[in-house]
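User: My advisor asked me to double-check a structure prediction for Tryptophan synthase beta chain-like PALP domain-containing protein before group meeting. I don't want to rely on an old file, so could you generate it fresh from this sequence?
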Amino acid sequence: MSFSPVDRQINQRNLLFKAENFQLTKSFKLRGAMAKMSASSSASKGGRLITASSGNHGIGTAFAARSLDKDLTVVLPESVVPSKLEKIKALGVAVILHGAETGLAEQHAQHLASTGQYTYISPYNDFDVISGQGTIAPELLEQCDKVDNIFISMGGGGLISGIGSVLKAFSPHTKIWGIPASNSMALATSIHAGKVIETEHLDTLADAVAGGIDEDTITLSLATSVIDEFVECDEDAIVHALKALALEENMIVEGAAALALAGFEKVKQRVIRQTSVILLCGANYNQELISKAIYGRDIDTTSVDSH
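Assistant: Sure, here is a fresh prediction for Tryptophan synthase beta chain-like PALP domain-containing protein from the sequence you gave:
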């Protein structure tokens, strides 16, 4: 796991990017995976582990399993981005494809674990995973003189719960902005309702944050306690942010990373002269889909930084 850089936005002095797209697995998910794998008593005893993922958590846990010599199976939805599937397979773990979306893959992994064959590792509903994601926050405070705002994409809530908990303790003035995608609003809707709500999940470029959440997820209370404000973003806003990052910052990232910038763009007039950080959560993307979103056609992206 590497210490990810903070990059300053070219045209705005007070806008910074915490670049988890430069992480070893091109996603922050490695942090939680390594924390859980290292802490798991089942893993230390050589037990069989199983997890579910839209892709990035699967890559992170597969990398951790290979590094720590663990027996891991990853359940993925049938809609998984092909490049993410290939990365997971290349890391040598067992793969099961199940269900049309991530929530169904999670349910299947939990069912297999309930048979006693495996120990289940949740991508978000786990204190060790959340604490691993939270290691981003002390890095950020070391790298920046101050952080007035941080914009974080929302999926299951592990990332925003981990970072938010640390920042509320050590930088209480920092405002935590939660950015959900309009096409997958499970956590935001549940927080507003005060209980887990089943929501409709439509296709989104921010596939890494798509899907439902567990009925007993600890991220509901954690995220509720740390998020100061939500900014919902639709697909057009995500596309605009993808284009800005590619054409102005020379960075091609996945849709979930661009989602955080899209949220900032919606409220940037409210945070003028404040230091704001965009959490770029990853860069494991479907090249054809992202290229079409950015350039309107298929294009070779090897000349543009995709790390």
